């Protein structure tokens, strides 16, 4: 067990610094999700099974919990992929074989002032953010065969790949499995513009009464649907701040950790323009961080695996080394590819400059006066 976390005295005001991401918060919420929320279904089949498979796919690909836990998630994904339906007992039997679902892990940064506050949803949000950031860091590099695509994305990050697998997986999974029906319907509505053609807007939850008329929302009222890993990081932060604003003052809000826009001007001053800071000083939800590049850099640094703390989690140093260095390590092949791309770009630039110079010389000659005979 790594160093234990000693909680400071509770404060009524939120901290002006950013609490680090604790692996314990993510693991605790993932345990709750698998052991409690998914098991609520007597039988998982059809659209629900598809949503579960899609969710486990993005979790296994983009959530880095170290080699041990990652291998367990990959194993669970393979088992679920083999099923055409899953009975509750089958699901429990699968979980019983995983230490991920049985390890005794407790919330740290997400620990609420009361047992029913924060905790599970707090850790879920962190997990979702971490997945979007990890996808951005990976640059959608599923294997060496697509390294060229990754380096092009690295050199030209503004290029959108047209996909948002995490956003779509969350839109399919959260409304169907999250135990809070009120939250599930709101999440389905807020993310409805990321669904594919022909997919339902709202989940079938007969035991939960919808908190509003189930109408298709106007897309202009929703966060713009992401089309790249970069946009997915920013989209989720926007969505999270929308939820924070809606739940501010709600009985579910922890008075020891009031809802705010994240990151606040105190947490990331560079993320806010002066005008936005002035607005939020009057009303804490009157503005959001409006300096996009600075915000992206902050979110990536905050949620990336190498920034995590592993207090309260039984892991080996090998696991931590893998999480901190694995996705950022470059091989000789990587460096050669970067060199080749740089040389090609330099050569193309040199050719372009040469062509411009030749054209300029020809143009200049055409304007020289003709020689006259003495």
Automatic annotation (TrEMBL):
<keyword id="KW-0472">Membrane</keyword>
<keyword id="KW-0560">Oxidoreductase</keyword>
<keyword id="KW-0812">Transmembrane</keyword>
<keyword id="KW-0274">FAD</keyword>
<feature type="transmembrane region" description="Helical">
    <location>
        <begin position="335"/>
        <end position="358"/>
    </location>
</feature>
<dbReference type="GO" id="GO:0005615">
    <property type="term" value="C:extracellular space"/>
</dbReference>
<keyword id="KW-0285">Flavoprotein</keyword>
<feature type="domain" description="ERV/ALR sulfhydryl oxidase">
    <location>
        <begin position="113"/>
        <end position="261"/>
    </location>
</feature>
<dbReference type="GO" id="GO:0016971">
    <property type="term" value="F:flavin-dependent sulfhydryl oxidase activity"/>
</dbReference>
<dbReference type="InterPro" id="IPR039798">
    <property type="entry name" value="Sulfhydryl_oxidase"/>
</dbReference>
<keyword id="KW-1015">Disulfide bond</keyword>
<dbReference type="InterPro" id="IPR036774">
    <property type="entry name" value="ERV/ALR_sulphydryl_oxid_sf"/>
</dbReference>
<dbReference type="InterPro" id="IPR017905">
    <property type="entry name" value="ERV/ALR_sulphydryl_oxidase"/>
</dbReference>
<dbReference type="GO" id="GO:0006457">
    <property type="term" value="P:protein folding"/>
</dbReference>
<protein>
    <recommendedName>
        <fullName>Sulfhydryl oxidase</fullName>
        <ecNumber>1.8.3.2</ecNumber>
    </recommendedName>
</protein>
<dbReference type="Pfam" id="PF18371">
    <property type="entry name" value="FAD_SOX"/>
</dbReference>
<dbReference type="GO" id="GO:0003756">
    <property type="term" value="F:protein disulfide isomerase activity"/>
</dbReference>
<keyword id="KW-1133">Transmembrane helix</keyword>
<keyword id="KW-0732">Signal</keyword>
<dbReference type="InterPro" id="IPR042568">
    <property type="entry name" value="QSOX_FAD-bd_sf"/>
</dbReference>
<dbReference type="InterPro" id="IPR040986">
    <property type="entry name" value="QSOX_FAD-bd_dom"/>
</dbReference>
<dbReference type="GO" id="GO:0000139">
    <property type="term" value="C:Golgi membrane"/>
</dbReference>
